[in-house]
Amino acid sequence: MAASDVKLVGAWVSPFVTRPRIALNLKAVEYEFLEEVIGTKSELLLKSNPVYKKIPVLLHRYRPICESLIILEYIDETWTSAPPSSLPTPMTAPLPAFGIFPNLGRIATSWGRDVEAIEQIKTAIEMLEKAFKDCSKGNDFFNGDQIGYLDIALGCHLGWLRALETMHGFKAMDEEKTPGLPGGRRGSWLMRL
């Protein structure tokens, strides 16, 4: 499929845009990346996502698909012949752990002074560590030996988490409390994304 048939509207800095970029690259789908300028909304973005006016938007044969996790599902269902043949989701993963993501924004906007947000992230990371241990069965990914939705959904936020840890002097992941997640002893799964 030609890159002109698949376009991704987004900004490189957005972890939500990183999700479909990882999936498209894993599936070896050629695509054109249409960079949005932060703080502005292009005519294409407004036309493609008129309700929420947010990135990312995947355009496949000019049909828009919005919301990063929905885009992941679409990519997985559309390009089934490309490895990995599917991006499975472990059903035992604790969804409340996704409280990490809004709290990253709270920490950034408070310049690291939001102690409650930092504690909520630490609690969520510990829950993810337990889920990783239960789901991975000693392998590198939440789903065992194959990358899945949860690996991508979490992995795209880790750069921001590491940056905030460095900027504001707190540690959410370490070898003792989170040995399976990135930063821990076995945290190699992110490096494979």
From TrEMBL:
One of its GO terms (biological process) is glutathione metabolic process. Belongs to the GST superfamily. Tau family. One of its GO terms (cellular component) is cytosol. This is Glutathione S-transferase. Its EC number is 2.5.1.18. PROSITE patterns: GST_NTER (PS50404). Keywords: Cytoplasm, Transferase. Residues 4-83 form the GST N-terminal domain. CDD domains: GST_C_Tau, GST_N_Tau.
